[in-house]
Amino acid sequence: MNQEDMKPETLVGRQGTVIAVCTSKKKGTRKQNVHQAELRPEWGIVGDAHAANWHRQVSLLAWESIEKMRALGLNVNAGSFAENITTQGLSLVDLPVGTHLRLGEALVEVTQIGKVCHERCAIYYQAGDCVMPREGIFVRVHQGGQVKVGDALEVLQVPPTAAEADQRRLQPADEGSGS
């Protein structure tokens, strides 16, 4: 994405599609597509091993990122990188932290882009690389609801850039307000 595409006014309203909803009972394993799930506020996906009251409640990865690994000859699919939600058509990695999204019926907020891998996963050893640490995103669930394959993922609100926030603070008060 170029700089113009990353301005808040150009991101709001953009949509992608949910192509997989994945869970696992244990951490450190590939997730299986269960096609739909309930997102609980301040928790994550009900029944998923990674759900907890923390900032990484639900993980998302774009299908376009998975395709990069497939191009290297890996037999990977939705859930292979332990992501909960696989999407298509929206560049997740370009969404700034603080972005508010509608994910199916739920409202979520981007809390982290990428992650540190403390241990190399099986994918890393097969390909010499893993896309989730660079291109996966994590969200906190603010309003719960169902999410299922085929649902939209829509950008609702993007935080202002630091420069835009500074510019707003520097604006003189409205002289006609009486204050």
Q: How would you describe what is shown here?
A:
With 179 residues, the protein is an alpha+beta fold. 34% of the residues are buried. A seven-stranded mixed barrel has the order 1-6-5-9-8-7-11. The chain is globular, with a radius of gyration of 18 Å. The model is unreliable at 171-179 (pLDDT under 50). The protein is 18% helix and 31% strand. The protein contains five helices and eleven strands.
Number of domains: 1
Distance between the termini: 42 Å
Radius of gyration over all CA atoms, rounded:
18 Å
Q: N-to-C SSE series?
A: HEEEEEHEEEHHEEEH
The CATH homologous superfamily is termed PK beta-barrel domain-like
Task: Name the quaternary structure.
Answer: single chain
Structural class: alpha+beta
Residue-averaged pLDDT? 85
- Structural shape: globular
Portion in beta strands: 25-35%
Number of helices: 5
**CATH architecture heading:** Beta Barrel
CATH class: Mainly Beta
How many beta strands in the DSSP annotation? 11
The strands making up the biggest β-sheet line up spatially as 1-6-5-9-8-7-11
Low-confidence segments, ≥5 residues, pLDDT <50?
A: 171-179
Q: Percentage of helical residues?
A: 10-25%
CATH topology: M1 Pyruvate Kinase, Domain 3
The main pleated sheet reads as: 7 strands, mixed, barrel
